[in-house]
Amino acid sequence: MAAAKKVLIAEDSSVIQNLTKKILQFQNFEISAVKNGEQVLKTLEKENIDIILMDINMPVMDGMECARRVRALPDASKANIPIVAITGNAKNYSMEDFKKAGITDYLQKPLDFDKLVSVVKELTAQS
């Protein structure tokens, strides 16, 4: 059996973080969770991750800045990790804004958990 795909959830809301974690664990994903973009970068220094689910509005470092920094990492495999933005403010950004920051796809809050699972499965099937 293939090793579980590793999902990093970057979300400052404990409620959303815990719900997302439970749903993806039920789908046999291995989950790490952090509260801001700075912690995403620290996690990537230590771990290999298959996909990042990232809130756009987080304290310390927001999702857009964090995505740009992930894309600038010297390790090509880490710099190319799929990043899915999770935001309640999608109207503030166009898909072009997300693409410029290096974001692969986005999900609107409140989260549609069926869509979350299908996007995560689709983007991790390639890795």
From TrEMBL:
<feature type="modified residue" description="4-aspartylphosphate">
    <location>
        <position position="55"/>
    </location>
</feature>
<protein>
    <submittedName>
        <fullName>Response regulator</fullName>
    </submittedName>
</protein>
<dbReference type="InterPro" id="IPR001789">
    <property type="entry name" value="Sig_transdc_resp-reg_receiver"/>
</dbReference>
<feature type="domain" description="Response regulatory">
    <location>
        <begin position="6"/>
        <end position="124"/>
    </location>
</feature>
<dbReference type="GO" id="GO:0000160">
    <property type="term" value="P:phosphorelay signal transduction system"/>
</dbReference>
<dbReference type="Pfam" id="PF00072">
    <property type="entry name" value="Response_reg"/>
</dbReference>
<keyword id="KW-0597">Phosphoprotein</keyword>
<keyword id="KW-0902">Two-component regulatory system</keyword>
<dbReference type="InterPro" id="IPR011006">
    <property type="entry name" value="CheY-like_superfamily"/>
</dbReference>
